[in-house]
Design a protein that fits this description.
This protein is an alpha/beta fold. Helices cover 33% and strands 14% of the residues. The chain has helices at 8-11, 23-40, 62-73, 107-115, 144-148, 158-167, 183-187, 220-235, 253-258, 269-285, 296-300, 324-327, 344-355, 376-383, and strands at residues 53-55, 95-98, 125-131, 171-177, 201-203, 240-244, 289-295, 318-323, 331-332, 337-338, 366-370, 393-396.
Length: 397
């Protein structure tokens, strides 16, 4: 699958009566209040891949750019939802297999995909890519922005998908790509990144090279759109929601000079964790658990802002995607070029060796082994490697 939100909980404060407290208690209370207020001040900004160009959407004017700025500033207001009180138990070992968008064309195609599941591995969950990188949606969503943006590709219902999976003896899980979405910014530029000086819409490459906009977690409209998708999916019976693409683009220095300064701040992660925590509350309120998916390559590049400060994050379950196709071309960081050679198992082992220390705060992380250039049999062999590194949960595909 593709690559990969902030605790409203930690930002909430209650007015307290400090009269009658000891001097020490007063001092501690005031200090705590200052720290909490300081934490509220930042809410990150984020989105997708290398940024080399930007363009102004036809018909945009200064009013649109003002609207974008206002939406960004006010993004903190609509993101607050009551903290979910429902207790959802995460599986001790998560063993899953992922379907592809082509498997969701009809109820017959879903049943055919189930019939192709290998009999050997102990698969318990089936992950369904309901919203993928780029913004396309593969079910009959009733969310307004999904309809108006033309994102909906299939008209299969969520209830049909859930019913087929459960009747086959599996648990349904949903994959939802968050901010790598060019569909919604295409109809509402205020949901994407805009330049500081002119309010022009930023895109991740030149138009002739397929450049596209991304949604930003600084937009309350964008965050609530994904939140509505999470609500729709979790209320339909999906037992687990996996939010991917919870990342910022690889902003170049020249991009950061044009874009809001928050994007160059180390505290930008707070925008992602705030959004993630809202998604988590939406999922848990409907009885579903939630995981965040991050790319192993992003983790190696230190581009996984979403898990950089785990204390801010209510979501404690993560899935790390080792995409064999992607790493086969090498992974470039600021200082090193890493080559990955050999079988899928060899490449998986090397990646886990490189990133294992970055996962110390997530000992129960699930490892996804994905790629379209190799067969399911080789992916299944590669999953055996993860046990050597202490990981017991896995996802195939």
């Amino acid at each position: 699958m593709g690559k990969r939100t902030q605790g409203r909980k930690i930002y909430k404060t209650k007015e307290k009566n400090y009269y009658g407290k000891t001097p020490l208690a007063k001092a501690l209370s005031v200090a705590l209040t200052i720290l909490l207020i300081g934490g509220i001040g930042f809410i990150g900004y984020s989105v997708a891949e290398p940024i080399v160009n930007y363009t102004k959407k036809k018909g945009d004017d200064t009013a649109a750019s003002t609207s974008a700025a206002s939406d960004s500033i006010l993004a903190t207001e609509p993101l607050s939802v009551p903290t979910a009180e429902v207790t959802v138990r995460e599986p001790v070992e998560y063993k899953a297999l992922t379907f592809r968008p082509g498997d969701l064309l009809s109820t017959d195609s879903v049943k055919a995909a189930i019939n192709r599941i290998p009999s050997g591995p102990d698969i318990e969950y089936i992950e369904i890519p309901l919203k993928i990188s780029g913004g396309n949606i593969y079910y009959s969503s009733s969310v307004m922005y999904a309809i108006n943006s033309g994102a909906i590709q299939n008209m299969i219902s969520l209830s049909d998908i859930v019913g087929i999976i459960k009747s086959a003896g599996y648990h349904p899980a949903a994959i939802i790509s968050a901010f790598n979405d060019s569909k919604v910014p295409g109809i509402d530029p205020t949901t994407g990144y805009v330049t500081n000086a002119t309010g022009e819409q930023w895109i991740d490459n030149d138009i002739s090279a397929g450049g596209k906009p991304w949604m930003t977690p600084y937009s309350s409209t964008a965050v609530n759109y994904i939140g509505d998708i999470v609500t729709e999916v979790s209320s339909a019976g999906f037992e687990k929601v996996i939010c991917s693409d919870m990342v910022f683009p690889y902003f170049r220095k020249s991009d950061l000079e044009l874009l809001p300064e928050e994007l160059g701040s180390r505290k930008r992660f707070q925008a992602l964790t705030s959004a993630a925590n809202l998604f988590y509350d939406r999922a848990v309120m409907n009885g579903a658990s939630m995981s965040i998916e991050i790319s192993a390559s992003d983790l190696l590049r230190d581009n996984a802002d979403i898990i950089s400060e785990p204390l801010y994050l209510n979501v404690k379950s993560i899935i790390v995607d080792i995409n064999i196709d992607e790493i086969s071309y090498g992974v470039n960081t600021n200082t090193t070029v890493y080559d990955f050679n050999g079988t899928a198992s060899d490449k998986t082992a090397k990646m886990l060796e490189l990133i294992k220390d970055k996962l110390v705060n997530f000992p129960n992380a699930a490892i996804r082994i994905s790629g379209t250039s190799i067969g399911t049999d080789e992916l299944l062999k590669a999953k055996e490697v993860i046990k050597d590194y202490g990981f017991r949960s896995y996802v195939i595909g």
